[in-house]
User: Which sequence fits this backbone?
């Protein structure tokens, strides 16, 4: 599920389903495929309520979704948000949400999406979508969800690039980092600076961001 381009979005699909090879599994493969065709690097991970989510540090965007069973978002995803370190590693991540369910969209938006969104009040939600059974294999619906996500991500990146100034010293430090990590560190530092309301990235801001983001 990968495709390499410069400055590419690094996305992970965090999902859950009780049904192996079911509709959710097929949907995430289609979403992953569509994202890769849009130039993103994509991985997927099935949730465990007690898992270790420190690997989320490696991604810019977290796409999170699951089916509804008996009025609740599938238990391993919901459980992970409550019991594990997932929320800690979701800090400052851009999110996209999807649900698969049999209920009409207004009901799902009112009853089911808030079960995820209540844990993500400080995150930027790039896109959200309820997939009805007949939409799960509809390429146009999947494409429009991925397009919405990618467009919002690009807009955010352009806005951030336009508003952030790096001092010469900070830029020199960034350029001394191996190229493989440079873009990740640039994004993480700018996102930290943006959250803190800084407009200029100095050496001090780089250090501050480094200690806050665990080195990324
Ligand atoms: C046991 C069971 C309970 C379900 N409960 C609900 C529900 O409460 N509300 C709803 O909208 N859909 C419900 N559905 C529909 C599923 O959310 C939907 O079919 C989903 O696509 C299943 O995903 P899966 O194939 O990955 O298991 C339920 C399905 C099953 C099998």
Assistant:
């Amino acid at each position: 599920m990968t495709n390499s381009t410069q400055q590419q979005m690094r996305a992970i699909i965090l999902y859950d389903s009780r049904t192996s090879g079911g509709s959710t599994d097929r949907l995430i493969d289609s979403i992953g495929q569509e994202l890769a065709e849009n130039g993103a690097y994509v991985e997927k991970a099935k949730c465990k309520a007690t898992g270790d989510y420190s690997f989320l540090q490696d991604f810019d965007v977290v796409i999170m979704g699951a089916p509804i069973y008996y009025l609740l978002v599938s238990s391993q995803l919901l459980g992970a948000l409550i019991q594990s370190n997932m929320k800690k590693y979701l800090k400052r991540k851009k999110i996209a949400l999807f649900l698969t369910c049999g209920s009409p969209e207004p009901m799902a938006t009112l009853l089911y999406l808030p079960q995820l969104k209540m844990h993500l009040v400080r995150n930027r939600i790039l896109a959200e979508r309820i997939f009805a059974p007949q939409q799960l294999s509809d390429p146009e619906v999947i494409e429009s969800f991925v397009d919405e996500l990618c467009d919002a991500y690009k807009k955010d990146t352009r806005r951030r690039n336009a508003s952030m100034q790096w001092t010469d010293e900070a830029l020199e430090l960034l350029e001394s980092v191996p190229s493989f990590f440079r873009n990740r560190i640039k994004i993480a530092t700018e996102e930290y600076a943006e959250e803190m309301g800084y407009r200029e990235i100095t050496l001090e801001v780089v250090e501050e961001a480094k200690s806050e983001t665990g080195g990324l």
About this structure: Confidence is low (pLDDT under 50) at residues 1-6. The pocket of flavin mononucleotide is lined by residues 17-19, 22-24, 67-71, 100-103, 133 (CB under 6 Å). The domain at 10-159 is CATH 3.40.50.360 (Rossmann fold).
